[in-house]
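Researcher: We're teaching a course module on how sequence relates to structure. For the next exercise, students receive a sequence and then see the predicted structure as C-alpha cells, so they can try to spot secondary structure elements on their own. Here is the exercise chain.
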Amino acid sequence: MPHVLQRISVVVPTIGRPSLDALLDALAGAPGPRPAALILVDDRPAGEPLRPDRPGLPPVRVVRTGGGGPARARNLGWRTAGTEWIAFLDDDVVPDPDWYLQLAADLADLPSDVAGSQGRVRVPLPEDRRPTDWERGTAGLATSSWITADLAYRRAALAAVGGFDERFPRAFREDSDLALRVMDTGGRLVRGERRITHPVRPAGRWISLRVQAGNADDVLMRRLHGRNWRERADAALGRRPQHLTVTAAALTAVGLAAARRPRGAGMAAALWLTGTAEFAWARIRTGPRTLDETVTMALTSAAIPALASWHFLRGLVRHRRVPPWRGLPDVVLFDRDGTLVHDFPYNGDPDWIRPVDGARQALDRLRAHGVRIGVVSNQSGVARGLITAEQVAACNARLAEVLGPFDTVQVCPHGPDDGCTCRKPAPGMVKAACAELDVDPARCVVIGDIGADVDAAVAAGAVGLIVPTPVTRRAEVEAAERRAATLQQAVDDVLAGTW
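Model: And here is the predicted structure for the students to work with:
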C-alpha cells in the first residue's frame, strides 16, 4: 500500500540512547515501500548531531529541541511533518519486519472519525526466572492503553487539541492525557495489528524511587480530566492509599516520640513497620528472590511510601489551578511594517527593510518549535500609484533575506475605498494564509501593531495580539484583548501557550 505510506511520517523522539540503533536497523531492513519521512527529534540539551547513516531508511530529517522532555519533542516532530498521519515510535522499541506494511493496513480506509491507531506491544521477559520489579513494571506496557511507544494520530487531530501537553515533564501520563483530549473532541482511537517489541532497558538499582515523581503527574491528570480519569484512561490507582497511610504512621510515630509519648509512638511505628513489610514482601515474592533483588526491594519499600506521598502533595500544590492546554498555534501571522520592520510609509526600496530589535531571534524561536510563520501586509501604496507590485515583492524578498523564510506571505494591494475583502481589518488575508497552510483559523495567532491587525484576526476566527508602537492609538491598545510590550514578549506568550 505505497499510497497509504506516503501519507505517513514516522516521528521518533530520542535522547541518543544506544537502543536507537536497533530501531533504525529494523526500519532500514524492513521490506517493502517506505513512509514519506522519518523525523528524529533530538531532545538532548547538547551534543554531536545525530547521523542516522543507514541505507534503506525513509527520507530522514533530524530536528533538535535543546531539551524539554518527550511531550515537547513529539510536538516538534508532528509540527515538522506535513503528512496526514503521524506515527510515533519510542527510541527503545524494535518494530517487526512487516511493520511498514501492517501500519499501512491499519490506517487504510479508516473512517474519518478515527483519530488514532495503536500498535501492539510485546515485552520479552526472562524464561529462566521470575521477572524483577522493574521488568514487571515494563511488562505492563503490553496491556496499556494509548501509549505512544507505537501510536499513529491524524495530524489534524493533534492540531485540534494543541498536541501533547508540555506541562507533563516526563514520559508518563502525557500520552493518556492526549488520548483523553482527542476522544473529548469526538475522535475514536482503535487498535491495529502491527507489532513492536519493547525490550526491558537497563535501569539502576534505585529506579523505583525515581519513578515516584509520576505521582505529581497523576494530580495534573485529575485536575484536567476529573475524578474518573483513571477509568477513562484504563490506569490503575496502585498503592497510593496504602502509601499515604504508611507515611502518616511514620510521621505520627516521630511526632509522638518527640512529645514523649512512647506507647503511642510504638503503636504508630508498628503500623509503619507492618505496612512496609507487607509492601516489601508483595514485591519480593513475585520476583526472582535473589539476594540483590531482595535487598533492593527491602530498602526501596521503606522509602517509596514517603517519596510517593511527597510527590503527590507536591502535585497538589503545584497544580492547584490548571487551565486547559491549548498548545502552540499552528501558524503565527505577522503584520510587516511597524511589527517586523520599522515603518517607512509606502516603502518600495528593499534597502529600507530594517528589522525591529529582536525580530530575527523571535521568529527563529517559533521556527525551532515547529510553528509556521507568515506575513499579512496592507500595501495600499500600490493602489495609490506610489509603489509598484514589483517593488513590494522585492521588499518582501529582502524581508526573507534578513529574517529567514516565511511559510506564507499575503499582500493586499488595494486602497481603503476599493471595497476588497483582503485589506485589514477585513479577514481575507488571514483566511487565505490559513487556507494555504491547511490550518484552522482558531489555531492561528495574528500579531500586529494597530487595531486593524487585531480586528482582521477576530473577523477570521483567529486570535489577535497587539504590540503597540508610538503610532498605535491608545483606544486600539485598550480594545485589544491580548497585548504585549514587545515582539519578544508576544512570542514568549505564544510559546507559553497563553495566546
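Model: If you want an answer key for the exercise: DSSP finds 19 helices and 13 strands in the chain. The longest strand covers residues 188-197.
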